[in-house]
Amino acid sequence: MSEPTTTADGTRTWTKTTDRPLRSWRKSAGIWLFAHFVGVPIPWSATRQTDAVALLAFEHERLLALAAVGEHVPAVLAFDGHALVTGDIGPTLDFLLFQRPPEERLPLMCAAAADLAGFHARGQWHGGAQARNITWDGQRFARLDFEERLVPGLPLAMVQRYDVLQLLLSLARLIEPLGPPAAHAVLRAYASVDTGQGEALRSFIARLLPRLQRVSRMASWSRRLDTSRELMRLRTVLAGMQAFVAGR
Question: Are 116 and 129 in contact (CB under 8 A)?
């Protein structure tokens, strides 16, 4: 987690250090299990965080590499191996969405999905594409938090599909009040940018759907789980996924 600092001239910066708590064993296991469940076999070594210095160095390298090819990421202001200072790139997508009335959220969600597709079309991947790691300054989207070491350990296309799933599921609580067509619209916005990517995503989701539907059916055996907000969100997203796969 980065800590914000505001300088005397009003400039805001963020500092991430090697002193911050690393991902717990339990959280690492949860991420690893979820990724494997959805068909993305992330190596345990990439999930379990044990070396804060290496993690920060990796993020520093990725930020420099992405900036060098013109991607919108936080500018690196300083790095000494133990602290990484970056510039501010605007409010996060999840923050902005919650500031808007429900009926005004879908266009921004779809725009974020289309922007992610463009990022992928340029041969890039995020690894942490949740709405909390995407920002919008009113003119352009940008991305932050690049600690995940997924490539070259996994195929680029697989990690890109994982990015889309991360974004979609991170938006589930905002999508659920709008219904399945909202989930479908977000996926179509991604697919509309590049036909090849859209077909790859449709195939990925088609393989994933039976697993997620099985979870939904099993949860229905418990009245408490069957009526939980989390399951309602999942079922809304699943219905949108089904429509996307069917091409409706």
Answer: yes
- Integer Cα distance of 195 and 2 in angstroms: 37
| pLDDT per residue of the chain (248 residues) written in tens, 0 to 9 | 677 787 767 788 999 999 988 999 999 999 999 999 999 999 999 999 999 999 999 999 999 999 999 999 999 999 999 999 999 999 999 999 999 998 899 999 999 999 999 999 999 999 999 999 999 999 999 999 999 999 999 999 999 999 999 999 999 999 999 999 999 999 999 999 976 788 889 999 999 999 988 888 887 777 666 667 888 899 999 999 999 999 86
Q: Where are the alpha helices (DSSP H) in 100-140?
A: 106-121
Question: How far is it, in rounded angstroms, from Cα 38 to Cα 131?
Answer: 19
Number of domains in the chain: 2
Last residue of a domain, one of 87, 105, 139: 87
pTM listed for this prediction: 0.94
Q: Which residue, among 151, 149, 144, has the nearest Cα to 1 in the 3D structure? A: 144
Where residue 214 falls (left for φ over 0; alpha for ψ -120 to 50; beta otherwise) is: alpha
Domain shared by 135 and 76, yes or no: no
Domain that holds residue 126: 93-246
As a residue count, the chain comes to: 248
